[in-house]
Amino acid sequence: MIFDFLIIYSLPLAAFLISILSFYYSALRGAKVRIEEVERIYFYPRFDSEGTLVGVDFEVPIVIINDGLRIGVLSDLHLVVAKPLECAGRIRTEQEMRKLPCAVENQGSIVFEIRTGSLPIKPKVKYEIKIIGKTAGKEIHSSFEFLLDEEDWEIISNYGEYYTLIL
Fold first, then answer.
1. Are 26 and 69 spatial neighbours (Cβ–Cβ below 8 Å)?
2. Which of 2, 27, 143, 148 has its CA 20 to 30 A from that of 53?
3. pLDDT tens digits for 26-63?
């Protein structure tokens, strides 16, 4: 008798709950925009007319992903050099400003490449970079750190070509 009661009432209830969850995830769920982890950084040394290194630009490819089922709108994006303190500042490029605001399709992604102005980057100093985006009035965050060892620094500071650091 109890077994019949469980079968008669619990199976339809379970099916109803599963159909509600399925409907939510297939039709009602909004945009879920996030920033993918950074995998590499491109360094571009800057030299003055005498060949002396004056600073290093770096370019960070940033992938914005929408895991939701509705279109999300990315309204703002910044790259912040958080540590060391002497380099703190928000960085926005003109290319980036022309792309914003932009729609991120459902189950889609957009790639930004933010290139900094020349910064006094040094070897054996841990740099913390934060990426801050705004979508639907909320901030989305991602961060990463990098440390240039002596070998990496020698390649960047002695050659005029770019250098890729894989994190």
1. yes
2. 143
3. 777 778 899 999 999 998 888 888 878 888 888 889 99
What is the 3-class SS of the chain, one letter each residue? CHHHHHHHHHHHHHHHHHHHHHHHHHHHCCCCEEECCCCEEEEEEEECCCCCEEEEEEEEEEEEEECCCCCEEEEEEEEEEEECHHHCEEECCHHHHHHCCEEECCCCEEEEEEECCCECCCCCCEEEEEEEEEECCEEEEEEEEEECCHHHHHHHHHCCCCEEEEC
Domain containing residue 7: 1-29
> In this structure, what token pair is assigned to residue 86?
């002497």
User: pTM of this prediction?
Assistant: 0.74
Q: How far apart are CA 135 and CA 119, in angstroms?
A: 28
Burial grade of 112 (CB within 10 A; 0-12, 13-18, 19 or more): buried
Tokens of 138: 């909320």
Cα–Cα distance measured from residue 83 to residue 130, given in angstroms and rounded to the nearest whole number:
10
25 and 39 in a common domain:
no
